[in-house]
Design a protein that fits this description.
Layout: H1 2-24, H2 38-46, H3 54-61, E1 83-84, H4 89-98, E2 102-103
Parallel strand pairs: 1-2
């Protein structure tokens, strides 16, 4: 009876560890979440306890032309896409100040 419990313990601990890693991937400090707008991402990055500067937050939130795919083609270089800052004049002002391209 004890043998069956001991055999299942590593599998349960592994499942628990995977669950914690997946849940930890949703923190604002790690980066952009899937399907998140540029404005929301920037506001979360600028509002963290680390008080990031706008360039660091923008580099974290900015999407790339290859959709951040690791195994992209060698012929095309990935280019940063303009930030979509529609409806956020304060963020547009910071983007102008630091030279980031954005759509209004």
């Amino acid at each position: 009876m004890k043998l069956k419990i001991v055999e299942k313990l590593p599998a349960r601990l592994g499942l628990l560890a995977c669950g914690l890693v997946v849940l930890g991937g949703c923190t604002a400090e790690i980066g952009r979440k899937p399907f998140e707008s540029d404005v929301k991402c920037l506001r979360e990055q600028l509002g963290t306890t680390m008080q990031l500067s706008f360039p660091i937050a923008a580099n974290t939130c900015q999407r790339m032309s290859d959709h951040n795919f690791i195994f992209g083609s060698k012929k095309k270089k990935a280019q940063p896409l303009p930030l979509n800052l529609r409806g956020a004049p304060d963020l547009q002002k910071m983007a102008d100040e630091y030279g980031y391209s954005y759509t209004k």
